[in-house]
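Suppose you are handed only these lines of text.
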Amino acid sequence: MTITTQVAIIGAGPAGSLLSQILGRAGIDSVVVERSSRSHVLERIRAGVLEWGSVEVLRDAGVGERMDADGHVHDGASIVWGGRDHLFIDINRHVGSHFMSYGQTPLQEDLYAAAAERGARFIFEAPDVELHDVLGDRPAITFTANGESHRVEADFVVGCDGYHGVARQAIPSTVLRTFEKEYPFGWLGIMSETPPLPDIVYANHERGFALASQRNPMLSRYYVQCPLDDALDDWSDDRFWSELTTRLGPTIGGQVVTGPSIEKSIAPLRSFVAEPMRYGNLFLAGDAAHIVPPTGAKGLNLAISDVHYLSRGLIQHYGDGVDTYLDSYSDMALRRVWSAVRFSWWMTKLLHRFPDQTEFDQRTQEVELDYLASSAFAQASVAEQYAGLPFEI
Ligand code: FAS
Ligand code: PHB
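From them, the structure of the protein bound to P-hydroxybenzoic acid can be written out as follows.
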């Protein structure tokens, strides 16, 4: 069966779902093809922090109501290290901005609910996606569903299919440039139905990194750095809570309300960028084009900023017959991507204990954190990057 549309989107994660939402509200037709089931996408536990620019994009896209009702607006975040009391980076005081704690899972639910309300065309459980004629005027994707082969013909194809997707592979190796850095540790994350700390707290400790975050007043999200070869069986809840509270230090660690984990997972950390993010009438958005270590809370926010830039270009194309934003999409998106990749790399270097790290390295990390504590200028720099730099006009 052949379906025709204006924009064929591969992947129904946050990037693909938000792109469909923004285009739909602008009267631009799209079809979203997702290889997994809707429930599988919703079961994945991922991000939890939204830059203020992301909050505004989601509100403008008509999916901000539950976020504004259930999300928690933060004026800043804290860092603890070296046995000292925490440093609160006051984002509101330094740069007049904020960020929002709102999980990627409820956001995905909001996007799916909006899609259903619009009668949007989402095709789930569609494996074997292949791309065709992305350099031609009528690019297409094919896939199988219910054992039958299907074809979606469009003006544009957008790969929102994540790091392990197929869209990036449609760009020839003679054109595609990739940049990658893998980190020698992972993050063990747990979810617990306990009241979270009021603030998001990052910890640099000689035993390793830790992070206290939240989803709602009775749902906490915590992480500790762990060796890449650790298995979940190596981490009982008791061991996790002991490591977390030790690394957060006596003051902050003493405030943690422990309880049974309802989710536990280990994620590797990497930095990855693929250039360009356009090839003919194929565009890449989100994790399909870049990955950052979650230390800077940028992954989901970059997916949203890519979609903000790309949807602006598609709306200009169909509305005004002008392609200045589409033609500048890759360069404009990549400027923001590399800025976030650098910030995430810097935060990761500053807060984690590397396997080959010496006492000198630990001491220089702590001195850099002491400088951050002593300098309003240094704090303002971290504040504006964590809350998210302004979008390019
Ligand atoms: P996604 O990977 O979310 O979605 C891609 C979709 O495409 C998936 O649904 C997939 O099934 C589908 N797909 C893949 N191949 C396909 C194919 N061939 N055909 C059709 N569909 C296909 N970010 C943060 O900011 N903070 C965090 O704490 C954080 N934690 C994370 C933890 C983990 C384990 C992972 C993997 C990522 C984490 N991230 C975090 C990053 C994450 O939030 C991503 O940035 C975000 O999901 C990006 O959204 P998408 O680009 O839509 O990609
Ligand atoms: C989360 O809430 O999952 C979270 C918060 C901040 C980060 C990474 C993850 O830097």
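What can we learn from it? The CA atoms of residues 175 and 251 lie 52 Å apart. Residues 10-16, 33-36, 41, 46-48, 104, 129, 160-162, 164-166, 267, 286-287, 294, 297-300, 303 surround arabino-flavin-adenine dinucleotide (ligand 1) (CB under 6 Å).
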